[in-house]
Amino acid sequence: MTARYALIGHPVAHSLSPRIHAAFGEQCGIPLRYELIDVPPEGFAAAVAAFEREGGEGLNITLPHKAAARALCATLSARARRCGAVNTLIRGAGGWHGDNTDGTGLVHDLTERHRLDLRARKVLLLGAGGAAHGVAPALLDAGIDSLWIVNRTPERADALSDRLGEPGRVHTRYWKDLPELGVFDMVVNATSAGRGSDRMDLPSSLVSARTLAVDLSYGEAAIAFLSWARAQGCETVLDGLGMLVEQAAEAFRLWHGQRPDTDPVYAELRARGPALHSAE
Ligand code: ATR
Predict the structure, then answer these.
(1) Which CATH superfamily is 103-239 part of?
(2) pLDDT averaged over the chain?
(3) How confident is the model over 1-13, as pLDDT tens digits?
(4) Which residue among 191, 199, 228 is best mutated to probe the pocket of ligand 1, counting the most ligand atoms within 8 A of its Cβ?
């Protein structure tokens, strides 16, 4: 029987994950089925249990289920524990094993595909939700100098900072203090502001031409932040499409024991242009 995998979220209709995993499977000669399961929060645990009963081998988790997924894991990887968020479930003998591939995916995209050196950078992380939790530990591990977390709701920035446990390198500031923080070497937009109608008001003093600007979303959701960065003169401006493909490759490796070549899949998705739907 063909092994079954799925993405669970709400909504998930526009997800690129089935296409990405199908391409990886074909490339590696691994037959698989990758489905989309759209379920609201109240149905999440039952949907996972049904998938498990039916023999499902692995799951990707997206909004709004990342915290609930963590709660139903029998075991967690060290990086999932550090992130406090789970985006990949692997079926094990004793239940689901939870992992998080977002941070590895982001760092892989920046350092391998785009050949960027993250070491010694002063980094601003905008947002303190699931996406920010997923990438923060990997950014620290990549050798950045310092991480400045700014979130509209300051308590969530403090909670993320406490979780990271590196008071010498991780700092939180209020949104209203953004104009006083100086220039950053890298600004990461991990907010979901681009998916809604609200505009983020960011001072131009945060960036210079040499600042790397990264939005963890792609498609329409990334347009507002990346247009702002280009308008400020940032020379390197990247969306989250590469991260999406790389986090999928890392999930594929966890499930199948092989890391696929991501370049052809990335190139095919990129060729489809900016008409891609938001993040997952
Ligand atoms: P995700 O998994 O995409 O991170 P999330 O956990 O709901 O989704 O987090 C959304 C993040 O975007 C939060 O940091 C949120 O800020 P709050 O914690 O204050 O809600 C941030 N966000 C959403 N809309 C925003 C806006 N218009 N301006 C600034 N931050 C925004």
Answers:
(1) NAD(P)-binding Rossmann-like Domain (3.40.50.720)
(2) 95
(3) 799 999 999 999 8
(4) 191
